[in-house]
Amino acid sequence: MTTPPPAPEHLHHWVVTLSCIDGPGIVHAISGAIVAARGNITESQQFASLDTGRFFMRLQVESQASRDEFEAALAPVTERWQMQWHLDEVGRALRTLVLASTAGHCVNDLLFRQRAGQLPVEIPLVLSNHGTLRDLVDFYGVPFESLAVTDAASKAAFEARVLAAVDEHDIELVVLARYMQILSPELCDALAGRCINIHHSFLPGFKGANPYRQAHARGVKLIGATAHFVTSDLDEGPIIEQNVVRVDHSRSPGELVAIGQDEESRTLSQAVKWFAERRVLLDGARTIIFR
Amino acid sequence: MTTPPPAPEHLHHWVVTLSCIDGPGIVHAISGAIVAARGNITESQQFASLDTGRFFMRLQVESQASRDEFEAALAPVTERWQMQWHLDEVGRALRTLVLASTAGHCVNDLLFRQRAGQLPVEIPLVLSNHGTLRDLVDFYGVPFESLAVTDAASKAAFEARVLAAVDEHDIELVVLARYMQILSPELCDALAGRCINIHHSFLPGFKGANPYRQAHARGVKLIGATAHFVTSDLDEGPIIEQNVVRVDHSRSPGELVAIGQDEESRTLSQAVKWFAERRVLLDGARTIIFR
Amino acid sequence: MTTPPPAPEHLHHWVVTLSCIDGPGIVHAISGAIVAARGNITESQQFASLDTGRFFMRLQVESQASRDEFEAALAPVTERWQMQWHLDEVGRALRTLVLASTAGHCVNDLLFRQRAGQLPVEIPLVLSNHGTLRDLVDFYGVPFESLAVTDAASKAAFEARVLAAVDEHDIELVVLARYMQILSPELCDALAGRCINIHHSFLPGFKGANPYRQAHARGVKLIGATAHFVTSDLDEGPIIEQNVVRVDHSRSPGELVAIGQDEESRTLSQAVKWFAERRVLLDGARTIIFR
Amino acid sequence: MTTPPPAPEHLHHWVVTLSCIDGPGIVHAISGAIVAARGNITESQQFASLDTGRFFMRLQVESQASRDEFEAALAPVTERWQMQWHLDEVGRALRTLVLASTAGHCVNDLLFRQRAGQLPVEIPLVLSNHGTLRDLVDFYGVPFESLAVTDAASKAAFEARVLAAVDEHDIELVVLARYMQILSPELCDALAGRCINIHHSFLPGFKGANPYRQAHARGVKLIGATAHFVTSDLDEGPIIEQNVVRVDHSRSPGELVAIGQDEESRTLSQAVKWFAERRVLLDGARTIIFR
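Structure tokens for the assembled complex are given below, as produced in the milestone run.
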């Protein structure tokens, strides 16, 4: 919906996400509050979950209202419905911490896309348990630290450094870009809902070591990757994005690894992009993706 | 949004589509009317066109309200905003007339999917300017008529039969399933907005006879199909759906034809499905597709 | 390569598949034999397996030579290299027995494609442990038998009927089109390399009952299907074809089932088509697919 | 086919491409020559063109033979069949000159992939008719020159610089990475078969200025890109690769441009990769792509 054209210098472009217990009249109440905030809805998506009974919404709104005025206009509705909600500027770069180990494909893809303006994030630090990726990260002009993890004490030190960096840089998202250490339950809890991991995926799944070799031995025709929120239940957090690519019998185990890494890179970058654009909402163990 | 659970036997599942000149407050007004109609919105999509300044919306609503009560609840809003709007039951089979010539692939695909319950249409008649497809159509138990078109008089007779069939069967959609005659401007006008055609498409486009042979000669790597509304401007109506498929140098012109026909079949069926589900709205020369 | 154009009425179109222990000179020997058989290679694919050390080849050859002359020309090569090989006419319909239970989607797809000329098979019988699909199979004019399986004795009777039908109709391929009984190890052995099964597939895999409900609960973004050869190791035979399709949070468990069934249908039909065209060769636990 | 394992330090990995007038016995003769060169065929593709009567082949061969020995072994065959042929080391970086104007997306993608080891080329120079991209190219450490083109004389000077650079750097491929000047017929001829261009593509095609705006106005559902060899017939040279991506009504003309640029980048990089791997052969106005 359009309002009379405002002076461009005062026009904000807001993204609003919210969720609450579902019930009659929510959309009506929200749209009324947007009108009160002199807002023009330019994008709107909603979903009512039959699983949890919750209602979810994402709006992009153009408005001359300041943040204070906008929040004040929404307050009666968000309070009455006891909403979890978030207000942000469209396109604001999300402060993102990247954790890595020795594999560079995901880190490279994230930094390249960030630099090319395809990913609305800023990355104040890449933190690794190895020094391998220093040159790659330097190339993009991003600070890099490495801190070896060899035993329980050094692991605790690494995780303490993660939490310190989160504080120091006011981090909103932690990305495990092939960081090959299992996070402690405490760190998983501290980063709940704002930590994304990537791993390879196969049809069918393969347990145990060297899944690409197993996939080759079974002659799988599709290999892929899954990006998901980190929970203390290893590789079982809410799924954000998945992709697969077709392979055939002529591919060696080494080629399958290379193909799988490409899928990991693009799947992780896609998940980070959606998260940064506030398109990912949590509904219990599931994600709602407002693409 | 949910209302208290109604007795299931009285629960309607409505699909509402509407469009009007865009302006502040439309969503708020509509959602208010849905609340008044004791409705629970289960699916909602909207779009504001910067090209035409119009606002478009599609809603699926569960409600115990009868059609009369529902329409009465919406009337103040639709009148105030001078909306074009439509109310229908979700899943109702659309009365569809199919026109064909000698090629059977699109007709076969439509009849198969209709019979398999994948296409919410009923087809009271297939009308052709040839007798070729009689056995195929008989196989699906659908009435078939043929009427040769050889000159201006027989063409006029065929088109008169089309209009009579539209009347007789209260037809809501006419599908040109590789009907190889050009419709007269009068018939195009009479069927405006409810007649869908299919044709092959290439990158780049090829003019003139035998485009598949030209496509082969140029070694194109993609061939496809476009489903569009029929207008008196041949092959230039609003596009509903397009698909392409990858081909390579090893394909003969004959194989390209077969591959192109598969694309035509699935593209036409997809367009018909979306139209029957009220997912296709017209915005000037463009379509809005609420998938 | 072309030979001088033969009288068309004598021109055969042969498909040759072969495998043997890899070694220098095989392609040279084979191509020499084809020249001796007055053959013109129109399609040729080869693969050397590093896993098993075996060499695989598929050729399509136009030749005026009769089957006897063709076999005689190849014999010195196939004998010297101790090849497993097969000679057939391109496009010959494969005699195929279909086993089913109550779900009709795969059976319907196979029968539809067979009738539409898209699948080079003939189906002399559909055999089921339920009567549910009789009308569907009748519609396509294919004989149908049902034989209840309720205990060990009736299961043995059903499997005996399968083997009798294989004999009686000289069956070359058995397709489990959602046949929901586990085959006995004896039947698996008897049908080794000529029995194809289909099942749903997920990223990640889900164990136990109602995988679609589990997939919904985890919010998976891709669901798919796998067609594979039947071995006595349940759902673990060599994979022939896999497909996935994208889904999102808005899909109910019931919709996921419908989407998964579409994938099962097209994946099974694709696998049957490649098998019938002699494009599927076995390399230990893997398949070579010469698409 | 395998030969006895050679000492690894002497093992070459050759790629052989060839074409000649089709006739019986070619494959037999070639495979015999490979045996004579102590070669082990690891990849092999062939195609007989019914359009031109020519036969095409690409082989990857492991052999301990030196280039001289290898060429000597093939000579009798290539001479007898009057073959056009080429022998190269697998993976050798192709010397590639990039021409650009002001748009950076294709240049960036080529340089990024080259640096990431995904593209077997070396790029001694990026030459532009504008200075816009200097910083981008500097970032990758590649030499950059700009030379304004404003009239016939400066255009001739630019093209002379292109030919001088081709000589100086022994260039094997010239890539027009959104170079927005039309090449003179003389330059097209001088670079025939080794100059690749990229342009956007639509279904249907749009003539005239601002095709993205036209595509938006028609509501196209697919936009794409075509990479092709440059000939003096503008945008009509043999097609190497094409891609499309799905769009919908919600995309502004500006977003369509961004999406189209992504397709241009990946399509051009794919075409360059196949060319550098000697997978692209010319058959009259068509390309054979041995993927």
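DSSP finds eight helices and 13 strands in chain C. The first strand of chain C starts at residue 12 and ends at 21. Further analysis is deferred to the final report.
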